[in-house]
Write a structure and sequence with these properties.
Helix content: 25-40%
Low-confidence stretches: 109-159
CATH topology of the largest domain: BirA Bifunctional Protein, domain 2
Structural class: alpha+beta
CATH architecture of the largest domain: 2-Layer Sandwich
Strand order of the largest sheet: 3-6-7-11-10-9-8
CATH class of the largest domain: Alpha Beta
Shape: globular
Largest sheet: 7 strands, mixed
Order of helices and strands: HHHEEHEHHEEHEEHEEEEHHHEEEEE
Radius of gyration: 22 Å
Oligomer: single chain
CATH superfamily of the largest domain: Bira Bifunctional Protein, Domain 2
Length: 383
């Protein structure tokens, strides 16, 4: 896990206006030498931050470049009036946002001030009460039990509104999707966000969870950029014009007393220039390709969390049946001839939607309908 130093953060803040700044100017404003500025900028460029070094002119950042920022995310979340409290963990670089949340204590005990502080986490991380929009505590990275940062998770949690941990990173070095596939995660362009939820239900009630999560992302995207061509490919791929825009990875880490702890990972392509940087294995796209505009990722994270919170609440209250019509409107596979690859066999047929448990319905050439709980789906080429 990596974090920017305070000096590096300050340099990016000064360059974020898009203007050119000389090393001497930056050094004077930060109270360090021009050589020190050059060393810090070199490290930032090695991380992938697109700082331009202009001969005899200084340094410049593209105007669209913006790092994830915990205060900005919290400010965008505050107007939504959510009942939950969110703990934000932001990183410059991390192996995997899902993996990080899996390593956090799953059941911190009230009064155990070290249950969260013993886990390395973000520098300058801030806990917000989003209902009041006030800063509650500031923390530093530490493995030392003597670090007595407050276990605000235990103090703020309740049976009704437990603390939700959110982990975002500018890049992932070992990002992954379904079936352990590598998730391409370039620095500072897209959203790699995982959240950990305590869901008050048994595991058998979570059938269809991945579909509901996908629908919450569709709702967020339409709120930000309405486009009827955005569809969901069962069970968890968000596509635009047959190209992958977003994917999710859901992992259940614990269950006790009718409460399931679930990690929901989302990878959304936002500002990548996907047209000029194709991937070798499958076509991908981004919001930038769709609109030719750059987006504020802090706002998008907030909108994603808002809609995810709402959709999970509706799902736990009413079940998947509440979303069947909405799924039908966004179903990419419906009516298409597909192949489903499973561990033991392959099935070819026509996709006929989902049942009330979220299983994919496929009608084979003999008219027999199969209900599938898992599998890798691809469109069958016309012969």
């Amino acid at each position: 896990m990596k974090q920017l130093s305070q000096t590096q953060s300050n340099i990016i803040q000064l360059l974020s206006d898009g203007n050119r700044h000389s090393g001497s100017e930056l050094g004077k404003r930060l109270g360090i030498s021009r050589t020190a500025i050059w060393k810090q900028i070199k490290q930032l460029m090695e991380l992938g931050i697109p700082i331009q070094s202009l001969a005899n002119q200084g340094y410049q950042l593209p105007k669209h470049f913006q790092l994830l920022n915990e205060q900005d995310i919290a400010q965008h979340l505050a107007p939504f009036g959510l009942s939950q409290s969110f703990k934000l963990h932001l990183f410059t670089s991390i192996t995997s946002t899902n993996s990080y949340l899996k390593e956090l204590p799953t059941n911190p005990q009230k009064g155990d001030n070290d249950s969260i502080s013993n886990v390395p986490r973000l520098v300058r991380g801030i806990q917000y009460d989003l209902n009041k929009h006030t800063q509650l505590t500031e923390e530093t990275t530490s493995m030392d039990p003597a670090n007595k940062s407050r276990d605000v998770g235990s103090e703020m949690s309740s049976d009704q509104y437990p603390l939700i941990h959110i982990c975002c990173s500018e890049e992932q070095t070992q990002g992954r999707g379904r079936f352990g596939r590598h998730w391409y995660s370039p620095f500072g362009e897209n959203i790699y966000c995982s959240s950990r939820w305590n869901l008050n239900c048994d595991l058998n009630k979570l059938s269809g969870l991945s579909l509901v999560v996908s629908l919450s992302i569709i709702a967020s995207l339409k709120e930000l950029q309405p486009d009827e061509e955005i569809k969901v490919k069962w069970p968890n791929d968000i596509l635009w014009q047959d190209k992958k825009l977003c994917g999710t990875l859901i992992e259940i880490i614990a269950e006790s007393n009718s409460t399931a702890q679930v990690i929901i990972g989302m990878g959304l392509n936002v500002n990548s220039d996907t047209q000029h940087n194709p991937l070798p294995d499958k076509p991908w796209c981004s919001l930038y390709e769709m609109t030719k505009k750059h987006f504020n990722r802090n706002l998008i994270v907030a909108v994603l969390l808002k809609n995810l919170t709402h959709y999970l609440d509706q799902f736990l209250t009413h079940g998947l049946g509440e979303f069947l019509k909405e799924w039908g409107q966004s179903d990419y596979l419906s009516g298409k001839r597909i192949t489903v690859n499973q561990a033991s066999h392959t099935l070819t047929g026509v996709a006929c939607g989902i049942n009330d448990e979220g299983l994919l319905i496929v009608e084979d050439e003999h008219g027999i309908r199969h209900e599938l709980s898992s599998g890798d789906t691809t469109l069958k080429s016309k012969e």
